[in-house]
């Protein structure tokens, strides 16, 4: 495999993949075939971190079979047989493998929380100045009251739901489901109060457990959790589902 200076009539630009022995990533680049190999090496410095003066270039086809080496710095890229999506592999033996990926020795600039808070060119300073987000006291107070009201309503509704009651669950975008209340209370996976239901049909998502925590017993896909707002208790008989409605 050597220097193949064969002029071929091809498009003025060629798309190639670039890899190197210095890092693990592959870059897709488009180069003008009128570039000299010397100029190409200069471009590849920015891509791979290798040095133009010490790198060697090998061309491989789309199946990674060797095609040629780009050894003549004065030759044009277009004088080599390089087709679309061929790969140019850059080797620079003067650099350590992974040298540009290892950031362990890079000095990091860090600010303390107090120092960050005193600067006026930060996102936090902008939010403070314009009273946005958590720095908008009126908006935060409004949200706090809304959360308290929502929690109060949730607690009042949950108090009307008792374990063992028949119930109907209606959630927008989902089929109406009926079953038996098996659990009412707080859970580990989401804040607030939740109602655990054993459905009459396999329209749930679990068997009454989430992860390693079990809240009630139910066959698989018959158990589910819903918010109190979506659950009504009462004398609800089982629903007869037509075949078209089964999940």
UniProtKB/TrEMBL annotation:
Keywords of this entry: Chaperone, Cytoplasm
Protein source organism: Petrolisthes manimaculis
UniProt-listed PANTHER family: DYNACTIN 1-RELATED MICROTUBULE-BINDING, TUBULIN-FOLDING COFACTOR B
Gene3D superfamilies: CAP Gly-rich-like domain, Phosphatidylinositol 3-kinase Catalytic Subunit, Chain A, domain 1
GO biological process: cytoplasmic microtubule organization; post-chaperonin tubulin folding pathway; tubulin complex assembly
InterPro entries: CAP-Gly_dom_sf, CAP-Gly_domain, TBCB_Ubl, Ubiquitin-like_dom, Ubiquitin-like_domsf
GO cellular component, one term: cell cortex
Location of this chain's protein in the cell: Cytoplasm
UniProt family annotation: Belongs to the TBCB family.
Basic and acidic residues: compositionally biased ranges: 137-157
Record-level Gene Ontology MF annotations: alpha-tubulin binding; microtubule plus-end binding
Major site of localization recorded for this protein: cytoplasm
Name this protein carries in UniProt: CAP-Gly domain-containing protein
Stretches assigned to the CAP-Gly domain: 185-227
Region (Disordered): 137-160
